[in-house]
Design brief:
This protein has two helices and two strands. The protein has 59 residues and is of the alpha+beta class. A two-stranded antiparallel sheet has the order 1-2. The chain is elongated and about 40 Å long.
């Protein structure tokens, strides 16, 4: 059971269903690009109501 809601993963670059970057990345892993499989992305996670803001980090 995922903590965050999942969405169908996409790897398009505006011209191709799978960008050259993601094609090479998954090819190096020896697996197929998981287009349409359930997953998450950082932008989606950042908008989750399940996150609680604790403050800012400063260097």
């Amino acid at each position: 059971m995922p903590i965050f809601e999942t969405i169908p993963m996409q790897f398009a670059d505006g011209e191709n269903a799978v960008s050259a970057f993601w094609q090479a990345y998954y090819e190096d892993l020896g697996v197929a690009v998981p287009v349409g499989q359930p997953g998450t992305n950082p932008s989606q996670l950042a908008q989750s109501a399940k996150l609680i803001y604790k403050g800012e980090l400063h260097d």
